[in-house]
Every structure is written in structure tokens, then in C-alpha cells.
Design a protein that fits this description.
alpha/beta, three-stranded parallel β-sheet, 8 helices
Length: 276
């Protein structure tokens, strides 16, 4: 139901705009459950990080190159509808397309990286043909990308064809700084579209301040702790939790709007202010 989907995107953008929040819309996702199904989705598994997140497309379509073209109307239709919409900062075509998902060992495609590369090439072509006014990107997500000659094929494609360079990093400040330094060689705007995992030393303070200083866009994908349950860490897939950890993995606010850490929320407000 394409019109219903587009209507929900519009509703989301309206809600975000009402809170002065812009968006990077992600069209495909290679992470978590490789066997998505339409219809009412299952309830989250208690205390498990991203327990019901699904891939798009799933392994059935991704693993069949003959079916990749079935996805063109989706890419073209969404971008054409919103291609001049200032509420959208950029289009991220494929989130972590070759992520092997250890939580789903045995269910992933053996040639996932190859299939994802083939689809990403087409996605860039379809997106360009839709002529969006917003920039296109596909984020690199593993490592520090120091040596251009040792990039994986999907990284090379992503970096060469993106209008703005986007990347993920869940390490401490030193690790983040290496990524920024290495990616500057592409001489394009930089956006970190995933970071912040408190238990791993990736924290707003000092990383948000560093990214602002370096004029690197910073996106934290978790805001309110909800159905994704990303206040729980990745290891909740193998370790049993009975209650929320004292230190959240991700997210900033409780469902009632109260911050997980008032001091952290204050730092974010001061650092992200556009007053200067």
C-alpha cells in the first residue's frame, strides 16, 4: 500500500518538524531479522535490544538478483514524493548493507556482501534518476578507513558515489577522531549517522562537542526508550536482563520525557545550541 506508506512518512515528518527535528531517511537496512513479513508485527521480546527490528529487503529478495528490480518503484516513489522537502536532510540508501548479524547466525545469506553490493549500485542509480534536491549517501560502518587501497568493495562504492560522506563509530573519542581524519581525504561534508554507546566509551560528552568543533554532522538514532529497547546493550541477545541496566546503552529520554541523565541532557542542550 504505497500511498499509506507515503502518508506515514508525511506524518512522521510533521511530528519531527513540530519539535524542530530534521531527518535522514533510510531506504534499505541490512541489520537484524533477515526474514521480514508483512502484517501486524510481533511484540518486542522483553529486555532485548532491537528484538523485532527487520531487514529491508529480507534475504529472500536480497539473495535473488533477478528480484532486485522489484524494489525500484519503492525507491523512486519515496524520493520523488519528497525530493524537494526541506525537512529531509539527506537520503541514506542502505544502512550497514553487509552486516553479518551475529544474532541471526545461520539465517543470513552466505553471499550477503555481494548481493548487497549489487543492490546498492542499483539504488544509487534509481535515486539519482529521481533527482532529489537533498544529498545521497550510504554510510560506511566498520573500521577506520585509513588505507584507501584496502577498502571493501561496498565501502569503495559508498564513498565514491555519496554526495556527503556518512559513517558509524561506536568507539571513544580517539577512535572517532581517527575516522574523521581518514575520511577528510574525500573532501566532502562528513556526517556521523550512528554513534553513542555509553558502555563502550562512546558518549555525548566529549564526542558531540568534538564533532561540532570539527563541523561534522552528528546523528544519534535513539531518542526515547521505546519498542526498540535500545537502552539495553547488544549483549542482551546472549545475556539475560531482568531490568533496565543502570547505564543505558543508548537513548536519551524515558517515555515520560524525563532524561536518563539530567547532566547529559544539559550537555546536549549546551553543545547542540545553534545560538552561535
Amino acid at each position: 500500500d504505497s500511498e499509506a506508506l507515503l502518508g506515514r512518512v508525511e506524518q512522521f515528518l510533521e511530528v519531527a518538524e513540530s519539535h524542530d527535528i530534521g531527518a535522514v531517511l533510510v531506504l534499505f537496512d541490512g541489520v537484524w531479522d533477515p526474514k521480514p513479513k508483512p502484517g501486524k508485527q510481533r511484540e518486542p521480546r522483553p529486555h532485548v535490544h532491537n528484538s523485532r527490528w527487520v531487514q529491508s529487503p529480507g534475504a529472500e529478495i536480497l539473495g535473488d538478483p533477478g528480484r532486485h528490480d522489484e524494489l525500484e518503484p519503492y525507491v523512486s516513489g519515496v524520493i520523488e514524493r519528497f525530493r524537494s522537502d526541506a525537512r529531509i536532510h539527506a537520503w541514506d540508501l542502505f544502512n550497514e548493507p553487509d552486516n553479518p548479524n551475529p544474532a541471526y547466525t545461520g539465517q543470513e545469506l552466505e553471499d550477503k556482501a555481494e548481493m548487497a553490493l549489487a543492490l546498492l549500485k542499483k539504488a544509487f542509480d534509481w535515486a539519482r534518476e529521481a533527482e532529489p534536491e537533498q544529498p545521497l549517501t550510504a554510510g560506511v560502518w566498520r573500521g577506520h578507513w585509513r588505507d584507501a587501497d584496502r577498502l571493501r568493495p561496498i565501502e569503495r562504492l559508498s564513498l565514491e558515489r555519496s554526495d556527503v560522506i556518512s559513517f558509524h563509530n561506536y568507539g571513544p573519542l580517539e577512535s572517532m577522531a581517527r575516522c574523521v581524519e581518514n575520511l577528510r581525504r574525500y573532501e566532502r561534508p562528513l556526517m556521523c549517522t550512528e554513534y553513542m554507546s555509553r558502555g563502550q566509551g562512546s558518549t555525548f560528552d566529549p564526542i558531540l562537542g568534538y564533532l561540532r568543533e570539527q563541523k561534522v554532522g552528528a546523528y544519534s538514532w535513539g531518542l526515547v526508550a521505546g519498542r526498540s529497547q535500545t537502552q539495553y546493550p547488544w549483549d542482551s541477545w546472549v545475556k539475560q536482563y531482568e531490568a533496565e541496566p543502570e547505564m543505558w546503552f543508548h537513548d536519551i529520554l524515558h517515555a515520560d520525557g524525563e532524561p536518563h541523565s539530567p547532566a547529559e541532557a544539559g550537555y546536549i542542550k549546551r553543545t547542540a545550541s545553534v545560538a552561535d
